[in-house]
From TrEMBL:
Organism: Leeia aquatica
Alphabetized Pfam families for the sequence: ABM
Record-linked InterPro entries: ABM_dom, Dimeric_a/b-barrel, Jasmonate_Hydroxylase-like
GO molecular function ontology, one term from the record: monooxygenase activity
Keywords linked to the UniProt accession: Monooxygenase, Oxidoreductase
Entry superkingdom: Bacteria
Name of the protein: Antibiotic biosynthesis monooxygenase
Segments forming domain ABM: 13-81
Length: 121
């Protein structure tokens, strides 16, 4: 499911879940599951957006943004997400770490077609 590379988010405060990982070689269903998780997360109450990258060295970072800690906990307990996390442990990741942060300040810009800088929202 395509999405903006930089998430458009509300004014803080909100929460970020930072998931860093190093993938094993090969796909083994990973791409399909990753796509499904992005689409499923977007349907969850409290979901605000996602940003994700993976390098040729198999290292990746996905940051998902959430309204509050209760939304994060509900996502963590979502049945398909539980299965995906378990598959990650069993066959997709050599290393993985999850960090949860409260975002208190955020700023940025987007260059418009006319070259004018507009606040990123």
């Amino acid at each position: 499911m395509p999405h903006d590379p930089v998430a458009r988010l509300p004014e803080p405060p909100y929460y970020a879940v930072i998931f860093s990982s190093v993938r094993h070689e090969g796909d083994e269903g990973y791409a399909a599951m990753a796509s499904r998780m992005v689409a499923l997360a977007a349907q969850q109450p409290g979901y605000l957006g996602v940003e994700s990258v993976r390098g040729d060295d198999r290292f990746g970072i996905t940051v998902s943004y959430w309204q509050d800690e209760a939304s994060i906990q509900a996502w963590r307990e979502q049945a398909e997400h539980v299965i995906a996390r378990e598959l990650g442990k069993q066959k997709w990741y050599e290393v993985m770490a999850t960090r949860v942060c409260k975002v208190e300040r955020a700023y940025g810009f987007a260059r418009q077609a006319d070259g004018v800088l507009a606040p990123l929202r």
